[in-house]
Amino acid sequence: MKIFYFIYLFLYFGYTIVRSGWLAAWVILKGSRGDNGGIIYYQTQITRPMHLVLFFNLISMTPGALSVDLSPDNKTIHVHLLDMNGENTFLTIAGRIERLLLKTS
């Protein structure tokens, strides 16, 4: 069953990358100067170091979001968003990726 969730994670992440890439390109083409960017703090339930590293990197590979730092207790990821109006969308996507990673363990 773990392999099913891993394949689903791979397909979902591929879809997310393409979709968010188009959205980030649209923001740039509209002439955004980055005035609406900012840092958010994402609380994670992931405890396994390998899954935490993978999750950190998956966030950074998504256009419009960049993992900046990890708290000393490994529970909070600091994420820079290109557009703070997309915070809810980011939280939905990150939550789904996190749940899929937890199911693969």
Which stretches are low in confidence, meaning pLDDT under 50 for 5 or more residues running? none
Largest sheet, strands/sense/barrel? 3 strands, antiparallel
In whole angstroms, how far apart are the ends? Answer: 11 Å
- What order do the SSEs take from the amino end to the carboxyl end, as H and E? HEHEEH
* Amount of helix: 55-70%
Organism: Alkalitalea saponilacus
Membrane topology: Multi-pass membrane protein
Family: Belongs to the CPA3 antiporters (TC 2.A.63) subunit E family.
Main location: membrane
Quick synopsis:
By secondary structure, the protein is α+β, with helices and mostly antiparallel strands. About 55% of the residues lie in helices and about 15% in strands.
Explain what you see:
- Its main location: membrane.
- It is a multi-pass membrane protein.
- This protein is flat.
- Strands 1-3-2 form a three-stranded antiparallel sheet.
- With 105 residues, it is of the alpha+beta class.
- α1 runs antiparallel to α3.
- Helix content is 55%, strand content 17%.
- It has helices at 2-29, 49-61, 87-103; strands spanning 38-43, 65-70, 76-81.
- The chain contains three helices and three strands.
- It has one domain.
